[in-house]
Amino acid sequence: MLFNKSQEENIKNLETPFYYYDLTLLNSTLDQAKAAADRYGFHVHYALKANFNDRLLQAIQAKGFGADCVSGNEVQKAIDSGFPASQITFAGVGKSDKEIRMALKHGIFTFNVESIQEMEVINELAEELGVVASVSLRINPNVDAQTHHYITTGLDENKFGVPTSELEKAATVIRKCAHVELMGLHFHVGSQITDLNVFKSLCVKVNEWKNWFEERGTTINVLNVGGGLGVDYQQPDAHPIPDFGAYFAIFDKFLERSAHQEVHFELGRALIAQCGSLISKVLYTKSGIKKHFLVLDAGMTELMRPALYQAYHQIERVAMGNTGEATLNYDVVGPICESSDCFGKEVPLPVSKRGDLIAIRTAGAYGEVMASRYNLRDEIRYVYDSEL
Ligand code: LLP
């Protein structure tokens, strides 16, 4: 259950839709992740792309996580939020010259480099600024993440990373570039990965390519294995916090590392998905020839994942003291002029009426950040548990 009785009373009067963030759950999640990683001396960078809401970032930074950024603005945001530059990584297939210069000036921990050409550009720009850039080579390991094809990133057909066929050339270029220094190797195979065997396969590849570089006399100080740990979208109340212990244990068991080598992670979703819900009001109920519809005041503009990836989110009515009512199967839709603006089809819910509040769960990651103003919608509103 998302809210207690007094919180329910308080939210009745709030303007909807809004993102509700449970900072108490976030802090417990962060504590568990940190404790599980610390057990093995692992370093965790939070992937800002999942959510860069200020209050969430403050909480994450305060617990000592690093930051994984994919744009110059994310690097700046991480710095403004108090993440030390020495704990910031900058990834992404298309870093612009402006973004690279900015990150170089801040002296970030490392660039996760995605092509040989990018390596050469970073070398040139670092030379111009009279600095040496710390770089890590993102290798595309061809591991199937067994997740939705839109969020699979480590297959040969994906645009990410340097293909293994190019590594010989990449190693030569790195040796020639006087203004880059290789810090480590970077891998990321996909997101919302729920089968931990995928991470086992990843470890096998990481070992293989780390050995490959070491056999050629290259020192590798950091093994960055990316992010991707999935969360339970079906049962958020049963599993509010992912099993970080089992996740990190896989890497401890299967990753071969020497004493000088650090292992880094870039977790986004697993840290913040469950602490966020989209709260919306039923504007209209209507029954067509084949369907019952609930028309909400939130749409794909606030939460795009169902429309974009057919992603499942649990939809529930904020109880308001009613239990044991009859249910109907509803198509839960938004107000946007697109047929894909649908949060769920045939969703069993108590028979609903105009004004009822609906919670769309597990929306803390890739929710607010992917929102748009399409149809000239309002800016996103937020409410935190401490305010209710
Ligand atoms: N590192 C890299 C290089 C990434 O590309 C990503 C996510 C992460 C780390 C963090 O992955 P996580 O731990 O959050 O799975 N919008 C999609 C997800 C896109 C993920 C992009 N990359 C969604 O709504 O499911």
Automatic annotation (TrEMBL):
Residues where substrate binds:
269, 305, 309, 338, 366
The EC designation for this entry is 4.1.1.20
Ranges for domain Orn/DAP/Arg decarboxylase 2 N-terminal come to 32-273
Binding residue positions for pyridoxal 5'-phosphate = 228, 266-269, 366
Family annotation (CDD domains): PLPDE_III_DapDC
Family matches, as PROSITE patterns: ODR_DC_2_1, ODR_DC_2_2
- The residues covered by the Orn/DAP/Arg decarboxylase 2 C-terminal domain are 18-364
Record has Disulfide bond as a keyword: no
Which residues get modified to N6-(pyridoxal phosphate)lysine? 49
Query: Pfam family example for this protein?
Result: Orn_DAP_Arg_deC
Sorted alphabetically, the keyword list is: Amino-acid biosynthesis, Decarboxylase, Lyase, Lysine biosynthesis, Pyridoxal phosphate
Q: Which superkingdom is the protein from?
A: Bacteria
The reactions it catalyses are:
meso-2,6-diaminopimelate + H(+) = L-lysine + CO2
Q: In which pathway does it act?
A: Amino-acid biosynthesis; L-lysine biosynthesis via DAP pathway; L-lysine from DL-2,6-diaminopimelate: step 1/1
Name what cofactor the protein needs: pyridoxal 5'-phosphate
InterPro entries for this protein: Ala_racemase/Decarboxylase_C (IPR009006), DAP_deCOOHase_LysA (IPR002986), De-COase2_C (IPR022643), De-COase2_CS (IPR022657), De-COase2_N (IPR022644), De-COase2_pyr-phos_BS (IPR022653), Orn/DAP/Arg_de-COase (IPR000183), PLP-binding_barrel (IPR029066)
Q: Which NCBIfam families match?
A: lysA (TIGR01048)
Which PANTHER family does this entry report, sorted A to Z? DIAMINOPIMELATE DECARBOXYLASE, GROUP IV DECARBOXYLASE
Family assignment from sequence similarity: Belongs to the Orn/Lys/Arg decarboxylase class-II family. LysA subfamily.
Q: Which HAMAP family match?
A: LysA
Biological role: Specifically catalyzes the decarboxylation of meso-diaminopimelate (meso-DAP) to L-lysine.
Oligomeric and partner information: Homodimer.
Protein name as annotated = Diaminopimelate decarboxylase
Native source species: Sphingobacterium griseoflavum
Top-level taxonomy = Bacteria, Pseudomonadati, Bacteroidota, Sphingobacteriia, Sphingobacteriales
* Gene name per UniProt: lysA
